[in-house]
Structure formats: C-alpha cells, structure tokens
Amino acid sequence: MSSDSNENNVKKGIGFGFAFNGILLAFRAEKNFRIHILIAFVVITLGLLVGLSIVEWLLVSLCIGFVLVTEMINSAIEALIDHLFPDYHEVAGRVKDLSAGAVLVAAICTAVIGVIIFLPKIYHIIV
Ligand SMILES: Nc1ncnc2c1ncn2[C@@H]1O[C@H](COP(=O)(O)OP(=O)(O)OP(=O)(O)O)[C@@H](O)[C@H]1O
C-alpha cells in the first residue's frame, strides 16, 4: 500500500471521527434531536410489537433518518446564523424559519407514513 493511500485512510478515519462527534454534539446540545431519538425508539418498539414487513421497516428507517438528518442540518444552520447574526436581522429570521420549516415537512411526511403503516395494524389488534 502506498503512503498516499495510507494518508487517505488516516484522513477518512479522522473524517468519521468528526462526523460521529457531530452526532454526539446534536445529542448533547439539541433537545429536539433527543426527542426525535426517543420517538424513533418508541416507533421501533411498536414496529417490533405489531410486526412490520421488510418494505414497512425500510420506510420507517428512511423516515427516522429523514427527520434526524433535517434536524441536524437545522441545528447547524441555526448555530451558523446565531454566530453570523447575533442581533435581530430579517435574513437571519427568514433562514431560520425556512430551516425549521424543512424539519416540519419531514415530520409531517413521517407522521403521514407512520399513520398509514401503524393505524391499520393497531386497529386490527384492538378490534
Ligand atoms: N437573529 C435573528 N433575527 C431575526 N429573527 C430571528 C433571529 N433569531 C431567531 N429569530 C426568529 O425566531 C425564531 C426562533 O429562533 P430560535 O433561534 O429560538 O430557534 P428555534 O426554532 O427556537 O430552535 P431551537 O428550539 O432548535 O433552538 C426563528 O425561526 C426566527 O423567526
């Protein structure tokens, strides 16, 4: 193995370290991220209880990832905006609203998919 590819592997390793640090940061500093993780655990537990098909698990996994990713990007944008615009600024407000709106869109899509997947199964168990 050449020294160039060794160097690349080391850089990749460090990159993963930074990326995991990003997840840790989100977990430690962002209440909403922790709430989403908690909801994800509840949904996974519910999925195990009611029994989901492979396709349903794929959709649930995608939805969980979709919400967590948008929440992390929203947090990153908020942090940057707070740094760039410590005082009130119209652009800052617009960017934050758009970014929060993206999380809401992800959450609404996820809720709709969740209801379509889980409601008939829960109804079947209850009735
Ligand atoms: N510097 C600013 N200039 C103008 N409006 C702002 C500014 N900071 C925040 N806002 C407005 O206040 C709203 C809430 O901002 P805030 O920073 O409290 O985020 P948040 O939605 O409460 O997020 P979180 O709960 O994740 O901290 C924004 O969506 C925006 O409309």
Describe the model.
- It is a single chain.
- With 127 residues, the chain is mostly helical.
- The protein has one domain: Helix Hairpins (Orthogonal Bundle), CATH 1.10.287.
- Helices cover 91% and strands 0% of the residues.
- The chain is built from 4 helices and no strands.
- Helix 2 runs antiparallel to helix 3 and helix 3 packs antiparallel against helix 4.
- It is flat.
- The N and C termini lie far apart (63 Å).
- Bound molecules: adenosine-5'-triphosphate (ATP).
- The site of adenosine-5'-triphosphate (ATP) has 10 residues, from helix 4.
- Adenosine-5'-triphosphate binds next to helix 4.
- Keywords: ATP-binding, Cell membrane, Kinase, Lipid biosynthesis, Lipid metabolism, Magnesium, Membrane, Metal-binding, Nucleotide-binding, Phospholipid biosynthesis, Phospholipid metabolism, Transferase, Transmembrane, Transmembrane helix.
Radius of gyration: 19 Å
Number of domains: 1
CATH topology: Helix Hairpins
Taking the alpha carbons of the first and last residues, their distance comes to: 63 Å
What order do the helices and strands follow? HHHH
Which stretches are low in confidence, meaning pLDDT under 50 for 5 or more residues running? none
Summing up helix and strand content along with how strands pair, one would put the structural category as mainly alpha
Mean pLDDT: 93
Under the CATH scheme, which class? Mainly Alpha
Helix content: over 70%
Shape: flat
**How many β-strand runs?**
0
Number of helices: 4
The main pleated sheet reads as: none
Hetero groups in this structure are: adenosine-5'-triphosphate
Estimate what percentage of residues fall within beta strands: under 5%
Second rung of CATH, namely the architecture: Orthogonal Bundle
What's the oligomerization state? single chain
